[in-house]
Backbone:
């Protein structure tokens, strides 16, 4: 099983693009949502390392082992109590969370991905919500908020507002668990451009259609420092190559920016 490494930190185009979009362009989030709606039937190919993401059996084994490290970390945080999953997508994590939670609400802005998620997890009692997380307001509080491969899609202009919303969704002493991608070139499709730190990447579907989306890569130590500045603290780890993951809680002694 792949474990945490020393980077851990503790306590083809059919779209015409006359100009490059910045992360602050509202239309970029709309395009990002359209991308995930169009990608719904092939999304799991990335997770399962098949098709354009197939880089051989050894690569797949490493990827799977690193994912298992994250599942083990989530399990070690159980019981999760009343849980909210943000950006639940096609259910890459939903079933695992449902087995550990007293109740589970799964939220996503794309109805098509939730339909796939429902089908995968038909035997579980899950409350599904179709809503844009940037507009949605929680009606009650949760013991745990989880998001997988979502934080990297939050633009800088929305980062603090997003974390404030997460905080408002938590019960006192509630926790946030998350996982995301490191800037690992072998994680993306074989026909994608090399990953960079621009914050915006082009993603290609099997059809050849392309979209631009927000994709911000974090290192555990830098991310934890940023979160401490806005009132969160905890641990953030990385696996050997592909992922970061962690758990944080609101900190009364965090130095909040005004």
Residues:
């Amino acid at each position: 099983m792949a474990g945490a490494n020393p980077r851990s930190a503790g306590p083809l185009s059919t779209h015409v693009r006359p100009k490059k979009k910045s992360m602050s362009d509202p239309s970029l989030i709309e395009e990002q949502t359209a991308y995930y709606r169009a990608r719904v039937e092939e999304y799991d190919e990335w997770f399962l390392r098949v098709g354009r993401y197939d880089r051989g059996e050894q690569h797949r084994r490493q990827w799977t082992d690193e994912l298992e490290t994250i599942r083990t970390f989530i399990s070690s945080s159980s019981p999760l109590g009343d849980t909210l999953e943000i950006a639940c997508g096609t259910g890459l994590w939903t079933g695992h969370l449902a087995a550990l939670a007293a109740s589970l609400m799964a939220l996503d802005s794309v109805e098509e991905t939730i339909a796939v998620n429902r089908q995968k997890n038909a035997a579980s009692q899950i409350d599904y919500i179709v809503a844009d997380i940037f507009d949605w307001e929680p009606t009650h509080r949760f013991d745990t908020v989880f998001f997988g491969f979502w934080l990297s899609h939050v633009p800088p202009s929305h980062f603090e507002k997003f974390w404030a919303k997460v905080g408002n969704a938590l019960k006192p002493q509630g926790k946030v668990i998350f996982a995301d991608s490191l800037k690992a070139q072998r994680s993306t499709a074989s026909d994608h451009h090399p990953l960079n730190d621009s914050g915006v990447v082009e993603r290609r579907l099997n059809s050849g259609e392309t979209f631009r989306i927000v994709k911000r890569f974090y290192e555990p130590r830098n991310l934890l420092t940023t979160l401490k500045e806005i009132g969160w603290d905890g641990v953030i780890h990385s696996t050997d190559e592909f992922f970061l993951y962690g758990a944080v809680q609101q900190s009364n002694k965090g130095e909040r920016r005004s």
Summary: Strands lie at 81-86, 101-108, 126-130, 142-148, 170-181, 200-204, 210-214, 232-238, 243-250. The helical segments are 26-38, 43-48, 57-76, 94-100, 111-120, 156-169, 220-229.
